[in-house]
Specification:
Length: 289
Amino acid sequence: MQKGPVTPKGFRDILPDLAKKRRAFINTVCNVLEKFGFVPIETPTLEFADTLLGKYGEEEKLIYQFKDRGGRDLALRYDLTVPLARFVANNLNLLNPSFSRYQIGQAFRGENPQKGRFREFTQLDFDIVGSSSPEEDAKVIAAAIKSAREYNLKDARMAINDRKNFEGLTLDDIRTIDKYYKIGKENIKKELLDFIAKSKPTEDLNIIFNLLKTKYNLKENVDFSFDPTLARGLDYYTSTIFELKLDDNPAGLSIGGGGRYDNLIGMFAGRSIPAVGFSFGLDRLLDII
């Protein structure tokens, strides 16, 4: 029976058994990432509100904001990526020519808690900053798949698409396509179904797929697959996008995702800085498995 003070809604204590599982997963993934050449960094939990505002579209309303005793506007970080952009802008010497980093940390969102989702959650991110080469996209995807395999997620599969496949469509049409497995094809317009059926991997995706097979010994339709319905991060990703599922069910829950985002990192540096990355959501993943 609970006798002490309760935690705020969406926040929780992590009991020993779960804490051990979290630590085991983190250790496994970090070992894989370091073999791929990623190095660790850490950034503050608190940022100035201006650093975070204007970066998340409609989701900005979920940012926790407050004033400190000096009247300064502060905010709890919403994710680990915008703090990475600030970090890179202040450490441009690390781009030689690119910088591969990973980070584990808490993020905060004022959304309605639900199964596997909390207002305070842990992210494990890894990114390559400074290169627009498809080789880096392949490296990030391979690192995510290899991490899942090392943790004994034998059936996990990466769904991959390219935002360029949606050129010419309205945002409403893209959002509808993204809900293909949720609402069922019977609720999607015929012209969009025809569009999905005709979609093929772009030139960049063909390069990435070839690298995954030849350089990283991964198998198409076993370790990864082309998914023309995947359309994550409409305000964020610029080309390649991918989601890791527990198995080959495209309608299954995602346990991580990422893609190429070439317009965010450079906004603090005043210059174009391409980037590609992936994020494991530890809370949802460990809740599922």
